[in-house]
Design brief:
Length: about 375
């Protein structure tokens, strides 16, 4: 692959560079140049007043565009081809609490998609959201599939495929052993679907729990006399929190509060998207469950929320509107921070020399105009 020059308004970690350009070569970013500095015979793409931001990294994708990750993992290459339309260039297919045979079917196929150079968004590995969760805070997870902490089962699951993140309830008896085992295998452990009181959550963060899964949702609430898991996340100096910024799962003012408390290096945007995302009203799969899309939500038959209909481009626009943050700050929450959390911070999530040429081009109205993945235009 020869030189490629992308002109536009380049969004770096802290600034927006007008009249600049990115120089790409062999699927990587070589650096940033000024107009007129393009190498001879370079392939030039002029995006005018559009913004060039790091490709979005989504750590929680149950499915999208009619594809359910758990029950149709063979369609992951198709999902990877479709996700760049939302600005996403890398993601973690996410499996909610499920029967063992479903894990045995899905995780090896996630491994195949991770190992292959699929076209479109890159599969970074799997996110196991469960099955070691609190029954009281299970959300849309089927109660029969939630189990007590079991190190043998966890070892079996980690051996089935490339698991990059595990969400569990750290207050459960025996959870400490799972945390140490998973972290020892290089897996990011995140607290979620948890009824942990403040003290137990803070202690877990002091150990090896590095993240919080969809902050505020399906966890002990934050109260002025019992701060709960969200309060522990705010009080702790290191933990990094995922946030569904659709304005429905979390009120816009609480999104703003999280941003003000934690900042762009400790908040990362997720979609928690389901097969219903990008589709019309109807019935869709979420692992062993059925979800129903109405005008703007995905719900179980009981009416409980079940994932979201959010895309990363919408999450990016929403967090700007809800918080008043800058474009570079929004880009860090959508790209840099999630990439760093799962150990990809040296190749994903920044427009910097040596990084993968994953670039999302946002039109002036912030809608996705074009997307490049590893130096190739995929949308």
């Amino acid at each position: 692959m020869g030189h490629v020059v992308m002109r536009g308004r380049v969004v770096t970690d802290y600034e927006v560079w007008d009249g600049a350009a990115l120089l790409l070569e062999n699927g990587c970013i070589q650096g940033m140049i000024r107009d007129g500095e393009a190498p001879e015979n370079a392939e030039v793409h002029d995006y005018g007043s559009s913004f060039l931001v790091p490709g979005f990294v989504d750590l929680q994708v149950n499915g999208c565009f009619g594809i359910d990750v758990s029950t149709r993992p063979e369609r992951l290459p198709e999902l990877s081809e479709k996700l760049p339309a939302t600005g996403t260039t890398a993601y973690l297919p996410t499996l909610i609490s499920s029967p063992e045979n479903l894990y045995e079917q899905a995780l090896p196929k996630v491994g195949l998609a991770t190992a292959k150079s699929v076209s479109g968004a890159e599969v970074l590995g799997a996110h196991l959201e469960g099955p070691f969760l609190s029954q009281e805070k299970r959300g849309a997870h089927p109660p029969a599939c939630i189990v007590p902490p079991d190190p043998v089962l966890l070892a079996e699951l980690l051996d089935l495929g490339p698991v990059r993140m595990v969400t569990l309830a750290p207050e459960l008896e025996g959870a400490d052993e799972l945390v140490d085992f998973a972290a020892g295998r290089g897996v990011v452990v995140s607290a979620g679907h948890s009824d942990a009181p403040f003290e137990a959550a803070y202690e877990a963060f002091d150990r090896r729990v590095a993240g919080v899964t969809h902050l505020f949702n399906a966890m002990s609430p934050m109260h002025h006399r019992a701060p709960g898991l969200p309060g522990a996340a705010f009080a702790h100096p290191r933990v990094v929190c995922g946030l569904i910024s659709d304005g429905l799962h979390v009120h816009p003012e609480m999104v703003n509060l999280a941003f003000r408390m934690l900042g762009p290096d400790r908040v990362y945007l997720v979609t928690d998207a389901t097969a219903a995302t990008g589709m019309g009203p109807g019935e869709y799969a979420l692992a062993t469950r059925k979800v129903y899309q109405d005008a703007n939500m995905a719900r179980l038959g009981s009416g409980s929320l079940a994932g979201s209909l959010l895309t990363m481009s919408e999450a990016f626009q929403n967090v700007l509107a809800f918080t008043g943050c800058t474009l570079p700050e929004a880009a860090r929450m959508a790209s840099t921070t999630p990439a760093r959390l799962v150990g990809e911070g040296r190749r994903k999530g920044r427009l910097a020399p040596g990084y993968d040429a994953d670039v999302t081009v946002l039109a002036p109205d912030l809608s996705p105009e074009a997307v490049w993945s590893r130096g190739r235009r995929v949308y």
